[in-house]
Write a structure and sequence with these properties.
Elements lengths: L4 E4 L6 E4 L4 H7 L22 E4 L4 E3 L8 E5 L5 H8 L2 H11 L3 E6 L11 H10 L6 E4 L4 H5 L4 E2 L1 E5 L5 E5 L18 H10 L14 E2 L3
Parallel strand pairs: 5-6, 6-7
Antiparallel strand pairs: 1-2, 3-4, 3-7, 5-9, 8-11, 9-10
């Protein structure tokens, strides 16, 4: 699937891009959407919004628990072809394992509502992690969508990097080629990976805000 068509829509913020699909496919996977504009609450260099959420094991995870650590937030939906692009190729797992090696906390977030595409409970989330050989620190379950809305998560994937002081340092897409085609992974500039490593090395982030792309989050 190649790049779609960008259309100006009055949907609260920004320019949204849709991938043309057959009606049945569009209904099943949702539209590709993205914007580089965010609300004033999310600004690079400002404190990241604090949060509390339950993980797939039923444990309460608080953002304050991770102060002193770099944190990556990854919005995910296993049924989204854009998410599958990065898991089927091993791209997402390779970045997760690099994060693990560098002492970075990686929190995958599922904000799909019950009955919507991508919704999973705890055991289902853990089974997905195992079957995909993924390596998140934890999977946060957000069926209410509160955490997703707090971070204005628009797409799956949509990614954020928070530094050890709790400051937001990156928000946007995983890379530079907004398609669901696995063949595009090695051609793309790896925005997230670059940002994570820059923060870990105490360097400026090359592209601190980029346009996220993927299926819309199924709130």
């Amino acid at each position: 699937m190649k790049t779609g068509i960008c259309t100006a829509l009055v949907m609260g913020m920004g320019l949204f891009c849709t991938v043309p699909l057959a009606a049945s496919a569009a209904q099943s996977i949702g539209e590709a959407a993205g914007t580089s504009e965010v609300s004033p609450e999310l600004k690079i260099g400002n404190p990241a919004p604090p949060f509390t959420a339950r993980d797939s094991a039923g444990l309460t995870r608080r953002s304050s628990d991770f102060l002193g650590k770099i944190v990556v937030l990854e919005w995910t939906n296993a049924d989204c072809p854009y998410t599958r692009k990065h898991y089927s190729t091993g791209n997402m797992q390779s970045i997760q394992k690099l994060a693990q090696a560098r002492g970075v906390i990686w929190l995958s977030v599922v904000s799909s509502a019950p009955g919507k595409q991508g919704y999973v409970d705890g055991p289902q989330a853990d089974a997905l992690t195992k079957s995909r050989a993924a390596a998140p620190t934890a999977v946060l379950l957000d069926p209410s969508g509160d955490l997703g809305r707090l971070y204005h998560a628009r797409t799956t994937p949509h990614l954020f990097v928070i530094d050890a002081n709790g400051l937001l340092r990156y928000m946007g897409g995983i890379d530079s080629i907004a398609t669901a085609d696995p063949a595009d992974v090695p051609k793309a500039e790896p925005y997230l990976k670059e940002a994570m490593l820059a923060v870990a090395d105490g360097q400026p982030v090359p592209h601190p805000v980029t346009r996220p792309y993927g299926c819309s989050v199924k709130y």
